[in-house]
Amino acid sequence: xxxxxxxxxxxxxxxxxxxxxxxxxxxxxxxxxxxxxxxxxxxxxxxxxxxxxxxxxxxxxxxxxxxxxxxxxxxxxxxxxxxxxxxxxxxxxxxxxxxxxxxxxxxxxxxxxxxxxxxxxxxxxxxxxxxxxxxxxxxxxxxxxxxxxxxxxxxxxxx
Length: 159
Fold this sequence. Notes:
Number of domains: 1
Structural class: mainly alpha
């Protein structure tokens, strides 16, 4: 019997629902393509959830940016083409996420400043981490897949 491989969207949601952060979930869903293990993805993404615990850039976005960096980032000093590619895909990720979700800042998305105990408690009480955050993980994965496909097929201007 052949095992059915989960799509990135489902894998990221499963990881997130297994008590991992949004950044870990997104990066782990793409770990194989990025040439890292799932364990490495968990470690690398572990400090970025909840907007680095300060309600800043959504961890799902930072996880996606880590994927884009691993796939398209500059690897050699002076490689201006790769640097420009990384800047372009970063800008696309951030702008598309904001367009889809009205913001890329965790505190704006949640409506609470989770860097404070009171804000984090209110977000927990309203079930935002279990009901809302998976939607942000899914959104980041979907946008990331679009950007990767466009990049791989030469459909992004300037690349």
